[in-house]
Amino acid sequence: MRDQEVKRDSTSREEKGKVWVIGLDGASFELIKPWTQDGELPTFARLMREGAHGVLRSPVPQSPPAWASFMTGCNPGKHGIYDWVQPRRGSYEVDLTCGAMCRSQTLWRILSERGRTVGVVNVPMTYPPEEVNGFLISGFDTPYGSTEFTYPRDLYEELKRHFGHYIILPIIVDVPLRQTVQNFYETIEQREQVMHFLLERYHPEFFMLVFNATDSLQHLCLQSYSDNGRNAAQLEVLRSIYKRLDIILASLLERLPGDAIMLVVSDHGTGPLRGYVHLDHWLAQQGWLRYASDNPALTVQRWQARLIQGAVTALKAAVPEIVKAGLRTRMGNLRTRLEEAATPLLLDWAHTQAYTCSSQGIYINLKGRQPQGTVEPGEEYEALRERIAQALLALLDPDDGRPIVARVYKKEEMFIGPYLDVAPDLYVHWQEDAYLAWNNSKQPRSVLFVRPRALEMDDIVPDENSGTRVGCHRQEGILLMYGDKVRPGSRIEGAQIVDLAPTILALMGEPVPAEVDGRVLTEALEETYLRAFPARRVAGGGGRGQGEEFIYSDEESELIKERLRELGYL
Ligand SMILES: [Zn+2]
Hints:
Blueprint: H1 2-7, H2 13-16, E1 18-24, H3 29-37, H4 42-50, E2 52-57, H5 63-72, H6 76-79, E3 85-87, E4 94-96, H7 107-113, E5 118-123, E6 134-138, E7 150-151, H8 155-163, H9 177-202, E8 206-211, H10 213-221, H11 232-255, E9 260-265, E10 269-272, E11 275-277, H12 279-286, H13 300-312, H14 321-326, H15 334-342, E12 354-356, E13 361-364, H16 379-393, E14 405-410, H17 411-414, E15 426-430, E16 435-437, E17 449-450, E18 471-474, E19 476-482, E20 495-496, H18 500-507, E21 512-513, H19 527-532, E22 537-538, H20 554-567
Parallel strand pairs: 1-8, 1-9, 2-20, 5-6, 5-8, 11-16, 21-22
Antiparallel strand pairs: 2-19, 3-4, 6-7, 9-19, 10-18, 11-17, 12-13, 13-15, 14-15
Helix pairs in contact: 9-11, 10-11, 13-15, 13-20, 15-20
Bound molecules: zinc ion.
């Protein structure tokens, strides 16, 4: 049956096939595999047994760049999103990243332009919603309180009518951990209902929906992969969330059209966090960074006055959902908050050669690029990058004396493309991805390492700067493929997150734009299908025409930045 279906030469829309993608942010085989073996996750087990699966590697394991690479098939050098924030050109200010900053064409844009129908729900980095041939509900980069997170616009009203308030991300902090978990359950319930409603109603040829609970709850609950004697309740939270998602996957399989392929993907994996590392403190200790407060000649008050003035003019706060979820009611006391938030920016730039402004990146204060650059381009720049990289590799964990940095990449070793100029000059890969760069102005300068502190179920969840996130990301995400074009029981080796967009295009009988970095994962596909629809490349697919002008306003950015710092992302 299967062979007959795919051998036909006709390329009518019906025969080109459909793809459904379920994104589970941060999902990991380290958790899934033992639970499938225990019989707890029968649908995951079935997908692995009857479909293809393998680790999906995400070289920059942060949600914004990882999802942007998923949706474009391109590396950050081409799509331009490296982290939660990125430096504004010619300035020390940073901008928050959102979907509009993605400079490469998305999968749904390519499909839409080819007349295919699409439906996209809550994929991170999709705000403001792109015009597509179908519908799109944007992800956690949507400003809090916005009613303009759907395409078409009136889908918002329709969702409101049927489901009430649409939850993009629930409240995470300022409530007991037990309540946070409950809030995620409610979000999952609603999203499941919305998913079935939209599938029933629109029958898109390409459908994708992302669940965020896995990522957020792993940060709070994943002290170790298995019971360490103290974390039984927290591990049970994760197991029950995966079990709930397993049931959703089962309900999707039941309604999966015969010609459709189902993919389950994560943007990165997850694992226990060993420690927070104060990289700016370290740079200061090494003599490459100087805080403004350490230079009496600098009038710190002047800086603060300028920043506060900028913020009090803010009348509306376009706070992304992820920030809102982290900080429910922190709008009061703005002045104090902003003073605190501005502290990391208060560097003595004339005496600073290197600084951080992202989770894994170090920027060089380069003459001609930064306003008060101190490092000459060329030899001096290269020598400094080399010295910092060597020093990072010698940085040891005080607990076990082992190196905490696995490798330091120069940006051109990691990324390629027209947006390399906004990439960090050095990119740090932590040992086993088990550390996080942290900037917390409340910590004394002498402190380089902070160990995470686990929360009990009845503890109130504080913001991320409290050091209570016990889990962090890994490069190893998940990929499961199921359907009649997929080789049953096959293992996928060496898949990269950029391979998904081209693979999905191939599964829908569409050629892949030449610009796309990833490859079609042909080893997972049936030969009969590949013979009927060989993977093809076509010219083009570069920059996207729409939405390039969008940027959060300065006032919005200040407020958002403040909150991201409190969440610990800056
Ligand atoms: Zn993520």
